[in-house]
């Protein structure tokens, strides 16, 4: 009755440990009298078959898939899927969510920063507060300064443009009910920014404070380029207000130019002054750069429209095991 979705990108080493720990958490619940995860049939002595760990390989270039295959061979509850190319974390998560089948769904990272023990607190809060989603709130985020600055920047802009209040302390780690998963999957957009999409869904939610761990091994998969790409998507997908800047600037500058035009014309006709080169060159640069800026913004939205119109799938699963 619980599905755990984990995207994997070049993270072979921590996987074995992670799965073992998740299973331990689930099993400890089983042993303590089925309080949290009731078994399929009462009195069952073995591990309940009512959980699944879904690992989605976002086309890693290291040995992740081999590690995953070994894990899947040893446990039918570990289900693995491999995407045909690197679609990015948010698409890999979407692929994983679409493969889940149970009532409660957890999403987490595979690098050891999200601790499996916290699943219990998340689930507990979900039931006690009777909400649809519970987010893990990362106190003292253990991410690099650049990463934290970038997420703060994006959140500020998103908030300013569309009121999307996405807490930078909230990451991937969360538990939700099936209703939320189905609602999320029913959103058809191709470029998916999970934070903004969940905020838009606006389901009743709660948070649980967790300790964020340093990475188990390796380094973040988000390099500067990937971060800029995600930031751009977060901003563009949260609001279309930027597209309207042009109309406001246009209105203001046209009023200003009528006033300035009348002034300079009067100078010309009354005093016969030659108009200055400086004024001309400055206004050409000024107006030109505003036009270029606005064209650029329009271009960015056109790119998004182009991607959506092409309507290529968010992800393509090449191989599935244990499903
Ligand atoms: N990830 C992914 N595809 C990518 C990049 C990352 O599926 O193209 C996964 C990665 O395996 C991990 C999660 O997304 O489970 C978060 O990645 P990472 O830990 O590198 O990011 P950070 O913790 O720095 O946000
Ligand atoms: Mg991480």
Structure report:
52% of the residues lie in helices and 16% in strands. The radius of gyration is 26 Å and the shape is elongated. The longest helix is centred in the C-terminal third of the chain and has 34 residues, at 277-310. By secondary structure, it is α/β, with parallel strands linked by helices. Bound molecules: uridine-5'-diphosphate (UDP) and magnesium ion. Magnesium ion binds at residues 109, 111, 113, 215, 220.
Report the principal-axis shape.
elongated
Strand order of the largest sheet: 7-5-6-4-1-2-3-8
Q: Major β-sheet, in short?
A: 8 strands, mixed
For the record, give the distance between the C-alpha atoms at the N and C termini, rounded to a whole number.
15 Å
Number of helices: 10
DSSP summary, beta strand count: 8
Radius of gyration: 26 Å
Unreliable runs, pLDDT <50, ≥5 residues? 38-48
Topology of this structure?
Layout: E1 2-8, H1 12-31, E2 51-57, H2 64-74, E3 78-83, H3 89-99, E4 104-107, H4 118-128, E5 133-139, H5 145-162, E6 170-177, H6 178-185, H7 194-201, E7 205-211, H8 224-238, H9 241-271, H10 277-310, E8 317-321
Parallel strand pairs: 1-2, 1-4, 2-3, 5-7
Antiparallel strand pairs: 3-8, 4-6, 5-6
Helix pairs in contact: 1-2, 5-8, 9-10
Uridine-5'-diphosphate binds next to strand 1 and helix 3.
